[in-house]
Amino acid sequence: MANLATPSGHQNVSMLGIGACRPGRLISNDDLCKVMDSSDQWIYERSGVRNRRWISGDEDLRFLAKTAAERAIVNSGVDRSKIDLLVLGTSSWPYNTPHGAPIVASDVGLNGIPAFDVSAGCGGFGYALGVAADAIRAGSATYAVVIGAETMSVGLDPADRSTGFIFGDGAGAVVIGPTEENGISPIVSGSDGENAEAIAQNIDTVSYMARAVEYQGKDPETDPVGRMVIYMEGPRVFRWAAVTLPKALTTSLSESGAALDDIDVFIPHQANARISELLKKNLGLPDDLPMAGDIENTGNTSAGSIPLAIEEMLATGKAKGGDTALLLGFGAGLSYAGAVVTLPPAPKVTSFEGLDEQPSGALAAHLAGVDAD
């Protein structure tokens, strides 16, 4: 019997740098209401969203992910040659094969390293962070790039009053690696498959392909193939969140070794401002404790939302490097992933520099009504 090697790694792991990328096109509630029967006030009161950013022109998920990763590497100061793992959290990579992480790794000069995708909806960044941190602790990696990136606008019906106003596009990334003190607690995660259909595609991919074949030759005016879009049962998700997530946050704290008084900043998934406020209140966090509010101008970017929110808070001074942050991602699955982390230094290169002057092009055809005069 062979005496197989047992690897050993670094038990203390932290975020060393952060980067993000936001699309150039800002879509206001008023813009959206050109195609949706709603109003700025109605949308804001129910979600906390004023604006969201959607990809346009040549922008795509690959561009967002590689730009965020590149900025995270630069901001971390880590020698690129020491990075030996890349994990991409996303549910909107446009291909089933090939998966996105190897392509993004190649784009940022890391071709050849282990690179894979994690698909866990809005909890995707938390799951990806946990996998990468545990790989370093196990000795399977030394430094890792962890990305959360989504182009939610691709699967939107902009006229749908349940989802059309919620979602945005964007990407955030962190570089993690060994440190003297631990800066990433154990990830606390879970799922509820009994409620999986609360956030889902309106048709599965195989059925949609069969439908496309069946409808070839039919008149698209009378027999449209239709689009594959995301739908959400908002009240059902809200009820699940109200029951499940407070327990998840309490467990995240107890497993982390931190006390409630140790938390400097609360960064929940940017799903809905009402849910964030409810979670903060139920946990007993002080009213004046800083909480992420990136949803107001970015929307819900699914797996991208937590790293984007971290970057926004650090870039604007709402939080600072070294702060102890409570994170919780949650959504499709239904699933969640939470942790307590030490925030990385404020980024030297941010996603906001030149953003207003960033070139943008036409929206995708299914969103074109938003551009109508």
Automatic annotation (TrEMBL):
A Pfam family assignment: ACP_syn_III
Keywords: Acyltransferase, Fatty acid biosynthesis, Fatty acid metabolism, Lipid biosynthesis, Lipid metabolism, Multifunctional enzyme, Transferase
Gene3D superfamilies documented for this protein: 3.40.47.10
Record domain Beta-ketoacyl-[acyl-carrier-protein] synthase III C-terminal: where: 253-342
InterPro entries given in the database record: ACP_syn_III_C (IPR013747), ACP_syn_III_N (IPR013751), FabH (IPR004655), Thiolase-like (IPR016039)
Lyase among keywords: no
Residue ranges of domain Beta-ketoacyl-[acyl-carrier-protein] synthase III N-terminal in the record: 116-193
Pathway the protein contributes to: Lipid metabolism
Keyword Lipid metabolism appears in the UniProt entry: yes
Taxonomic superkingdom: Bacteria
Family per record: Belongs to the thiolase-like superfamily. FabH family.
Protein name per its UniProtKB record: Ketoacyl-ACP synthase III
Organism for this UniProt entry: Gordonia alkaliphila
Lineage per the UniProt record: Bacteria, Bacillati, Actinomycetota, Actinomycetes, Mycobacteriales
